C-alpha cells in the first residue's frame, strides 16, 4: 500500500496520456453524432407535409396549460393507488410464496390454495378481474361494500400479487439448501430460518424483477378508470373530448414518464448492484 | 462419561443403506476422527447426529438423553450440537459479527449487546477480531471457515461436528483451521470430525473410526488404526491414501 511514493514509469505515463486522449476523442465523437442525428430528426419531422396539423392537435401550449391541473389531479389518484397497491401486492405476494414453500402433509391444503391462487390470477386478464370486482361485486348490495376505487385497487392487488408471488418463490428457491442446513444446525426453527436467512437473500436476489413489475403496475393502475374513478389518462381523455385536441394525452404521457423515471432509475441501480454482487466484484 | 452414543444407526437413500447398524461412542473431551472413502457415509452420519436427516433405525443419545426419540424437539437438540460444513455455509447477507450472533440472539434470546460482546471476545481469541464487521465474501477461505467454527461455538455446544472442514481450502490455508481445532481440543471440547487429513487425525484424534459398508469397520487409537490396521479394507484404503501422498 505504498502508492503515494510510487513514481510512474515512462511506459505507464504514456499509457495514461493515451487513454486520456482516447476518452476526450470519444466524448467529442458522441456529442457530434448526437447533434447530427437530432438535427436530422427535427428537420425530418418539422419538414413533413402534415407537421403543422400535428403540431396544432398534439402540441398546443395553451391547451396543455389548461389541461394540466385536471391531469395532475388524476395523476395524484394514480400515485396514491400505486403506493397502496404496490405495498399490498408485495406483502400478499410474499405471503403466498412462503405458503407455497411449506413442506409436509399438514400443509397440503394451504399449499394447494396458494398454488391455485398464482395459477388463477396470473391466467386471468386484469380487465376481467377489474370488471368482476368493480361492477359485479357492488351488485350484491352487501352492507359495507367498499367504494369502487378500493375494489379496483383490490383487483390490481390480486392480479399483481399472483405475479410477485412467483418472483418471490423463484428467489426463495435460489437460496442453496446448504444455507438452510447451516441455519437449522444452529438451532433456528423453520420460521426463524425463513425470516433471518432465506428471505433476506431471496428478496435481494429478485429485487430487480420485483421493481420491474412495480413499474408495470404503475401503468396498469390507470385501468381503474374503466370503473369510474378519474385517473390521469381518463382526465386527459375528458379534456380531449372537450377541446377536440390531443394535447392533454401528451401532457399525461410526459407526466407518466416523469413519474416513472425515479422508479426506473432505482430499478437500474439495484439491477446493476445485483449483477456486480453475482460476479463476485 | 459419554457425550454421544449411537446404536444401530440405519439410514437409507432410495432403498440403499448408507449407514447400516452403525455404533459410535464419544466420551467427554474426546476427539473422534471419521475416515473412509468418499461416499462411505461420513457426512450422512454427522447430519444424522445433528438430526438434519431422519433415521431409518437405531438410537442416538446426547449426554444420556435419547435425542432420536419421538417427541423430542430437534431445534432444541441442535442448539447443543455445533456443526461446521465443508463449504463454510456462512450467511452471505450478514456481517461476520451478525453471522456469529444470529443463533445467540434468535435462539437463546440474548440481548444484542451481550451477544455481540461475547461474539467479539470469541472472534478476538481466534484472531478474527479485525474481521468482525466484514462480510463473508471479503474473507479468505481459511478465515471463512474459522468464522463458521466461531459461529458454531457461540452456542456453547456440548459437541462439535466438523465435516471435512479443510477440504475446500487452498493448501496454505489448511494450517490455520487445523490449529484452531487443536486449540479447541486443548480447551476440552468434545468433537467428531470427518477428515481426509490423516496426519492431522493421527495428531489430534483420541480415536479414529474407519467407515466402510455403512458401519465402523475398525476403530481405535490413531497409531493402531492408521499404523497397524487389521482389516484388509482399512489397509487398502490407507495404501490408496499413501499413494496419493496424503499420509
Ligand atoms: N440427500 C441424499 N440423497 C441421496 N443420496 C445421498 C444423499 N446424501 C448422501 N447420499 C448418498 O449417501 C452416500 C454417502 O454419502 P456421504 O455421507 O456424503 O459420504 P461421505 O461424506 O463419506 O463422502 C453416497 O453414496 C451418497 O451418494
Ligand atoms: Mg462428505
TrEMBL record, chain A:
For this protein, the parts annotated as crossing the membrane are: 23-45, 75-99, 119-140, 249-267
The residue ranges of the ABC transmembrane type-1 domain are 75-267
Q: Which SUPFAM superfamilies match?
A: MetI-like
Q: What's any GO biological process attached to this entry? A: amino acid transport
UniProt GO MF annotations: transmembrane transporter activity
Task: State a GO cellular component annotated for this protein.
Answer: ATP-binding cassette (ABC) transporter complex
* Membrane topology annotation: Multi-pass membrane protein
Q: Please tell me whether the keyword Magnesium is annotated for this protein.
A: no
CDD domains (UniProt xref): TM_PBP2 (cd06261)
Localization, per the record, is: Cell membrane
UniProt entry keywords in alphabetical sequence: Amino-acid transport, Cell membrane, Membrane, Transmembrane, Transmembrane helix, Transport
The UniProt similarity line reads: Belongs to the binding-protein-dependent transport system permease family. HisMQ subfamily.
* Name of the protein in its database record: ABC transporter permease
UniProtKB/TrEMBL annotation, chain B:
Q: Which Gene3D superfamilies match?
A: P-loop containing nucleotide triphosphate hydrolases
Molecular functions (GO terms): ABC-type amino acid transporter activity; ATP binding; ATP hydrolysis activity
How is this protein annotated for GO cellular component?
plasma membrane
Subcellular localization: Cell membrane
Pfam families linked to this entry: ABC_tran
- Keywords (A to Z) from UniProt: Amino-acid transport, ATP-binding, Cell membrane, Membrane, Nucleotide-binding, Transport
Write the protein's name. Answer: Amino acid ABC transporter ATP-binding protein
Q: Which organism is it from?
A: Micromonospora sonchi
Lineage here is: Bacteria, Bacillati, Actinomycetota, Actinomycetes, Micromonosporales
Amino acid at each position: 500500500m505504498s502508492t503515494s511514493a510510487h513514481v510512474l514509469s515512462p511506459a505507464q505515463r504514456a499509457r495514461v496520456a493515451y487513454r486520456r486522449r482516447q476518452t476526450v476523442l470519444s466524448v467529442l465523437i458522441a456529442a457530434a453524432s448526437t447533434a447530427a442525428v437530432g438535427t436530422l430528426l427535427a428537420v425530418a419531422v418539422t419538414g413533413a407535409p402534415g407537421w403543422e396539423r400535428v403540431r396544432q392537435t398534439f402540441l398546443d401550449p395553451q391547451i396543455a396549460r389548461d389541461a394540466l391541473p385536471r391531469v395532475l389531479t388524476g395523476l395524484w389518484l394514480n400515485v396514491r393507488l400505486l403506493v397502496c397497491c404496490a405495498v399490498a401486492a408485495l406483502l400478499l405476494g410474499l405471503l403466498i410464496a412462503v405458503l407455497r414453500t411449506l413442506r409436509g402433509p399438514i400443509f397440503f391444503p394451504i399449499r394447494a390454495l396458494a398454488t391455485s391462487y398464482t395459477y388463477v390470477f396470473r391466467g386471468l386478464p386484469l380487465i376481467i378481474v377489474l370488471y368482476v370486482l368493480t361492477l359485479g361485486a357492488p351488485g350484491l348490495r352487501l352492507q359495507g361494500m367498499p367504494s369502487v376505487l378500493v375494489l379496483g385497487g383490490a383487483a390490481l392487488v390480486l392480479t399483481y400479487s399472483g405475479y410477485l408471488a412467483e418472483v418471490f418463490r423463484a428467489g426463495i428457491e435460489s437460496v442453496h439448501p446448504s444455507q438452510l442446513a447451516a441455519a437449522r444446525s444452529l438451532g433456528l426453527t423453520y420460521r426463524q430460518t425463513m425470516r433471518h436467512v432465506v428471505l433476506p437473500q431471496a428478496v435481494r436476489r429478485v429485487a430487480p424483477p420485483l421493481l420491474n413489475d412495480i413499474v408495470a403496475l404503475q401503468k396498469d393502475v390507470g385501468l381503474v378508470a374503466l370503473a369510474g374513478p378519474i385517473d390521469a389518462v381518463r382526465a386527459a381523455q375528458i379534456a380531449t373530448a372537450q377541446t377536440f385536441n390531443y394535447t392533454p394525452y401528451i401532457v399525461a404521457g410526459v407526466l407518466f414518464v416523469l413519474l416513472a423515471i425515479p422508479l426506473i432509475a432505482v430499478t437500474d441501480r439495484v439491477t446493476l448492484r445485483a449483477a456486480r454482487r453475482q460476479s463476485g466484484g | 462419561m459419554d457425550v454421544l452414543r449411537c446404536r444401530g444407526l440405519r439410514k437409507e437413500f432410495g432403498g440403499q443403506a448408507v449407514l447400516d447398524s452403525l455404533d459410535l461412542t464419544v466420551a467427554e473431551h474426546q476427539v473422534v476422527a471419521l475416515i473412509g472413502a468418499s461416499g462411505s457415509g461420513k457426512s450422512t452420519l454427522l447430519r444424522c447426529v445433528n438430526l438434519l436427516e431422519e433415521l431409518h433405525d437405531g438410537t442416538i443419545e446426547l449426554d444420556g438423553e435419547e435425542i432420536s426419540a419421538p417427541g423430542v424437539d430437534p431445534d432444541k437438540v441442535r442448539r447443543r450440537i455445533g456443526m461446521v460444513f465443508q463449504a463454510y455455509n456462512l450467511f452471505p447477507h450478514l456481517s461476520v459479527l451478525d453471522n456469529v450472533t444470529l443463533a445467540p440472539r434468535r435462539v437463546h434470546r440474548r440481548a444484542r449487546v451481550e451477544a455481540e460482546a461475547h461474539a467479539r471476545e470469541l472472534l478476538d481469541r481466534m484472531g478474527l477480531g479485525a474481521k468482525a464487521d466484514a462480510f463473508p465474501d471479503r474473507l479468505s477461505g481459511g478465515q471463512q471457515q474459522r468464522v463458521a467454527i466461531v459461529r458454531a461455538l457461540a452456542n456453547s455446544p456440548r459437541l462439535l461436528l466438523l465435516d471435512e472442514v479443510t477440504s475446500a481450502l487452498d493448501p496454505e490455508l489448511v494450517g490455520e483451521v487445523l490449529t484452531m481445532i487443536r486449540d479447541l481440543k486443548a480447551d476440552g471440547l468434545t468433537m467428531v470430525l470427518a477428515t481426509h487429513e490423516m496426519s492431522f487425525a493421527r495428531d489430534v484424534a483420541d480415536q479414529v473410526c474407519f467407515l466402510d459398508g455403512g458401519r465402523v469397520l475398525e476403530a481405535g487409537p490413531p497409531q493402531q488404526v492408521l499404523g497397524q490396521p487389521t482389516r484388509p479394507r482399512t489397509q487398502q484404503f490407507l495404501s490408496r491414501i499413501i499413494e496419493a501422498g496424503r499420509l
